[in-house]
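Lecture notes, unit on protein representations.

Consider one protein chain, 89 amino acids long.
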Amino acid sequence: MSADFVIGLAGQAILVVLKASAPMLVLGLVVGLIVSIFQATTQIQEQTLAFVPKIVAVFLSVIVFGPWILNTVVDFTYNLLNNLYKYIG
């Protein structure tokens, strides 16, 4: 295995992790921003008001984007194992 292959594989792995986590992170960020604006305008400083909606939003995004995330990770794993088999075999 060459160093270029390993570095390329690590780059692909980081890209897959970013793609798989992006929907949850973006939705959590948007919901957190909306709740923060709501708290600032109403001057309600309740900690659970900021925490619970973000958890619900992330949970819903996992349900909605779960098949796509699973497909992305399975495709990466398949390509990884296929490349390793070609290298070994």
